[in-house]
Write a structure and sequence with these properties.
The complex is a heterodimer. By secondary structure, chain A is mainly α. Chain A folds into 2 domains: 15-45; 49-279, Orthogonal Bundle (MetI-like fold), CATH 1.10.3720.10. Chain A has helices at residues 16-45, 49-57, 60-93, 99-106, 114-125, 131-137, 146-157, 159-172, 175-182, 187-216, 219-225, 235-244, 248-276. The longest helix of chain A has 34 residues, at 60-93. Chain B is globular and about 65 Å long. By secondary structure, chain B is mainly α. Chain B has a single domain (37-274), classed as Orthogonal Bundle (MetI-like fold). The chains are: A mainly alpha, B mainly alpha. Chains A and B meet through helix 1, helix 3, helix 4, helix 5 and helix 7 of A and helix 1, helix 3, helix 4, helix 5 and helix 6 of B.
Chain lengths: 287, 278
């Protein structure tokens, strides 16, 4: 029977023809569903030329949206970094009851629709709630204002840093810290001089992903922002606004900035994986 | 035995766990409780009246059916892409590998307007199918396409690490015992990938059901036809019908927590059976 084929086919691989067909199908699917949309953003943005593109980005609304997005990320990301470091310290360095449950809870925001992530704050601070009117009497606006946008952004980006650091610190164990402590270092010294250098690349990795999502979040922010032009519109919301007003070039020009952010994030993330793969969590791939 | 935590020389347990729990409660727990309380506030009959409203049911059906179809398509092509990326060497492999994560990184609103530009009747692909009388954008097909876009990385990224771990010896053993390549793949490889494939399916499905930004632009948002459940929540909010919004959200949350529960069962089962989780 085996005499039929003249060359010896590898028993653990497929014939070259099958191989190339599978590669072709896989890459074609990716090209169609993943690459094409990114190319379309840029081709639509530059459709009316570089001048129109440049002008769109200097539009006052676009400028204020860019500023607001940067500000929201600058508040939300550091808070989630502090949380991520605290949570992974408590979870990786200690054994306590309910730990597995806590890890599951931290991932919770990933399984909640972004719209619901925004909705919960509307219900908490909206006109029918107890908190909202009470805060308003002190002149504090949460909903349809920047604090609401920050809260919704924190909600959706909540797990990013923690889920990168927890498996990494669990892998590394506590040996280094115990050595530092036994040599007389204080707790803070141990953290800054031993733990932080050990986890820096993993931390950077988590920050990158957290930041990309924070700047790009749409659903949750759309619900709480009230979309007040020039005041509570972040970049993604401004993209929607331009788009609905049939200002295609303006919408895609602003979208192209967000697409560039995504590409830069991806390049840095890949570079980190190639260069420091062994200093990232084993589960560091993916979202 | 009954201690809450085991002793350790490392300091900072109280501080870090305390902050973790306080922050989690403030940002996630209290708001979620507010949601459940608000939807419970209208009473049992009111809750069901709002949840079984025909428009709500239609939106839930649209969301779940399109998400199911998209996740199924993603399982087929995601498995194929993971296979190609792990097993074959070809020029540009690492670039394609990196690009799998694009849907994670690209803001959903950007993906939404871009997909619409491509599949609208005057777009690159919309133009191609328009003469055949087909419409993609502004129909449930458009919704499915957006969901395929955002769900694909979940499938590829869950299967890839498992595929990398499967040792070549198992395949060699299967081949020396006289199995054809097809038999080896279908009887030896696929069963050990099944938990990862199921996990990828569940993740892609869960994400697609809740997806908003990349879907609403291409969906057309016609009530009873192409209106997704998250959009209906937004519409209820704009009508200041907070309770109606809370009810739809609660229904969606319950369903996705059930999904998460099933997912955990699959992973526990695969750990017992194959010695690894995914």
């Amino acid at each position: 029977m085996a005499a039929k084929s003249r060359h010896l086919a590898s028993p653990t691989s497929e014939p070259a023809s099958v191989r190339w067909m599978l590669i072709l199908v896989g890459l074609a699917f990716m090209a169609l569903f993943i690459v094409l949309p990114v190319i379309a953003v840029f081709s639509e943005a530059f459709r009316q030329g570089l001048g129109a593109y440049w002008e769109s980005l200097h539009n006052a609304d676009a400028q204020s949206a860019i500023r607001l997005t940067l500000m929201v990320a600058a508040i939300a990301v550091p808070l989630n970094v502090v949380f991520g470091v605290c949570a992974s310290w408590a979870i990786a360095k200690f054994e306590f009851k309910g730990k597995a449950f806590l890890i599951t809870l931290i991932d919770l925001p990933f399984s909640v629709s972004p719209v619901i992530s925004g909705l919960v704050y509307v219900l908490l601070f909206g006109s029918g709630s107890i908190l909202g009117p009470w805060l308003k009497s002190y002149g504090i606006e949460i909903l349809f204002a920047v604090p609401g946008i920050v809260l919704a952004t924190i909600f959706v980006t909540f797990p990013f840093v923690a889920r990168e650091l927890i498996p990494l610190m669990q892998d590394q164990g506590s040996g280094d810290e115990e050595a530092a402590l036994s040599l007389g270092a204080s707790g803070w010294q141990t953290f800054w001089r031993v733990t932080l250098p050990n986890i820096r690349w993993g931390l950077l990795y988590g920050v990158l992903l957290c930041n990309a999502r924070a700047m790009g979040e749409f659903g949750a922010v759309a619900v709480v922002s009230g979309k007040i032009r020039g005041q509570t519109t972040t970049m993604p919301l401004q993209v929607e606004m331009f788009y609905n007003e049939y200002q295609g070039t303006a919408a895609f020009a602003l979208a192209s900035l967000l697409a560039m952010l995504a590409l830069v994030t991806l390049v840095l993330k890949t570079a980190l994986e190639w260069r420091f793969g062994d200093e990232l969590a084993a589960t560091g791939r993916g979202h | 035995m009954m201690r809450f935590r085991q002793p350790s020389v490392i300091p900072g347990f109280g501080l870090t766990l305390g902050f973790t729990i306080a922050y989690f409660s403030l940002i996630i727990l209290v708001p979620l409780i507010a949601l459940v309380l608000r939807s419970a506030g209208i009473g049992w009959s009111g809750f069901w009246a709002a949840a079984l409203d025909p428009r709500v049911l239609a939106a839930l059906r649209t969301s779940f059916v399109t998400a199911l179809i998209a996740a199924a398509i993603n399982v087929v092509f995601g498995t194929l892409i993971a296979w190609v990326l792990v097993r074959y060497r070809f020029p540009g492999r690492r670039i394609f590998d990196a690009m799998v994560d694009l849907p994670f990184a690209l803001p959903t609103a950007v993906a939404g307007i871009s997909l619409t530009a491509i599949y609208a009747p005057n777009g690159i692909i919309g133009q191609l199918v328009a003469p055949l009388g087909w419409r993609i954008a502004y129909t449930p097909i458009g919704i499915t396409i957006a969901m395929i876009f955002i769900g694909l990385p979940f499938v590829v990224r869950t299967i890839q690490p498992i595929l990398e771990e499967v040792s070549k010896e198992v395949e060699e053993a299967s081949a020396t015992l006289g199995a054809s390549r097809f038999q080896t793949i279908s009887r030896v490889l696929l069963p050990s990938l099944t938990p990862a494939i199921l996990t990828g399916f569940a993740l892609a499905f869960a994400r697609a059901v809740g997806e908003y930004g990349s879907v609403i632009f291409i969906a057309g948002n016609i009530p009873f036809v192409s209106e997704i459940a998250p959009l209906l929540i937004v519409i209820r909010l704009e009508e200041f019908n907070y309770q109606g919004a809370a009810v739809i959200a609660t229904v969606m949350l319950v369903i996705s927590f059930l999904m998460l529960f099933v997912l955990n069962l699959i992973q526990a089962w695969s750990r017992r059976r194959y010695g690894y989780g995914s």
